[in-house]
Design brief:
Blueprint: E1 6-8, E2 14-16, E3 21-28, E4 31-38, H1 39-46, H2 54-60, H3 62-75, E5 83-85
């Protein structure tokens, strides 16, 4: 998947502390996909522990997360949702 146009829908962003992820929806080239960014990836981006501030930390890093989400999806366009974004997907 070369240079996907990924747009995060800010209305879909929510913290899921049970799975230690922030989940969100995004449109990629016209198709809607579900994503989840692990707390460990947020910690790697911000240097802070997400715990009770996961969504605000996500919002400060939305550009980097957009790039990481495109990388995670590019691994396998047909993978089940949510597409998991880990530290391996960070630039």
């Amino acid at each position: 998947m070369a240079d996907p146009r990924l747009t995060i829908d800010p209305q879909t962003v929510f913290d899921n502390p049970d799975t230690r992820c922030v989940e969100f929806g995004a449109t990629v080239d016209g198709a809607v996909h579900g994503f989840a960014v692990q707390y460990d990836a947020l910690r790697a981006l911000t240097g802070e522990t997400p715990d009770d501030r996961a969504v605000p930390l996500f919002q400060t890093q939305v550009d980097a997360i957009t790039v990481a989400a495109a990388r995670a999806l590019a691994r396998d366009i047909d993978q089940p949702t949510p597409v998991m974004i880990s530290e391996n997907d960070l630039a």
